[in-house]
Amino acid sequence: MKILVGVKRVIDYNVKVRVKADQSNVDLTNVKMSMNPFCEIAVEEAIRLKEAGVASEVIVMSVGTSQSQEQLRNALALGADRAILVSTEGDVEPLNVAKVFAAVMKKEQPGLVILGKQSIDSDNNQVGQMLAALTKRPQGTFASKLVVDGDSALVTREVDGGLRTVALTLPAIVTTDLRLNEPRYAKLPDIMKAKRKPLETMSFTDLGVTQKGHYRLDKVEAPAIRSAGVKVTSVDELMSKLKDEAKVI
User: Fold this and answer.
1) Using CB atoms within 10 A of its CB, is residue 210 exposed (0-12), middle (13-18) or buried (19+)?
2) What residues does the Electron transfer flavoprotein alpha/beta-subunit N-terminal domain cover (predicted)?
3) pLDDT of 136-164, one tens digit each?
4) Domain presence at residue 188
5) Cα distance between residue 92 and residue 124, in whole Å
6) Residue 24 is assigned to a structural domain of this protein
């Protein structure tokens, strides 16, 4: 069974994001970029399934600029077998990303698609659900546990009320949550080997997908600066402030 995994290039989560002076977008000048943390979890889960003998091949895929090859090579160093870059310039809306993944799924016929539940830049949390709708595949979102057995999968989902387990018939789509696993680090020998692994580049046109814009970005603003908090020395002082100043009790 093949597993197709989505990988996205985002600003590293340790970096303090800056807004451009003209408020047209986020400033990416000299900013460290990394693999989206939820995508790292997706890659790790796919590799574990391959190591367990469940999958025969792990394919990682990204939709973005040529710079996304860096994140794909990192995924290859972690243990993926080959990579696909669907090259494009600028931001890509979730629906367009889902259409590209649907086209690649038609070509590759993976038994399982694993995506991060969301990217930490746009936080849309849409691609997995849109992809399931486009391909009419069963989906298990916000997965904190995944068990694949033959042609079925059990996905434990994190929901507001706790945990819910759903049974999916493969092929299916799963999106990962934080507690699914702990991603590994790439070792130097594996990083060197990854340079020789196949990385195929294609375009939207190659896949028969037309990019369409469905919304317009008017302005990006930094969040308002919050005032500093106040330290209290006792429970009595805390209760007094909650009652007299905050008016919450």
Assistant:
1) exposed
2) 23-211
3) 999 999 999 999 999 999 999 988 888 99
4) yes
5) 12
6) yes
pLDDT digit string (tens) for 55-77? 999 999 999 999 999 999 999 99
DSSP 8-state secondary structure symbol assigned to residue 26: B
CA distance 115 to 135: 15
Domain assignment present for residue 244? The answer is no
The residues with which 112 forms a beta bridge, in sequence order, are: 3, 172
Question: Which H or E run contains 194?
Answer: helix 188-194
**Amino acid found at 151:** D
Q: 235: Cβ–Cβ under 8 A, 6 or more apart, which residues?
A: none
Task: List CB contacts of 186: < 8 A, sequence separation 6 or more.
Answer: 74, 77, 78, 194
Residues 6+ apart with CB under 8 A from 69: 83, 85, 199
Task: Report if residue 141 sits inside a domain.
Answer: yes
Whichever domain contains 60, its CATH number is: 3.40.50.620
Distinct helix (H) and strand (E) counts, the chain: 6, 11
Residue 236 dihedral angles phi and psi, to the nearest 5°: -60, -40
State which H helix or E strand residue 56 sits in.
Answer: none
Give me the domain span that covers residue 29: 2-223
Please provide residue 104's backbone torsions phi and psi, each rounded to the nearest 5 degrees: -70, -35
Amino acid found at 173:
I
Helix 37-51 to helix 69-78 angle, to the nearest 10 degrees? 30
- Tell me the pTM: 0.87
- Please state the domain count of the chain: 1
Phi and psi at residue 138, in whole multiples of 5°?
-65, 150
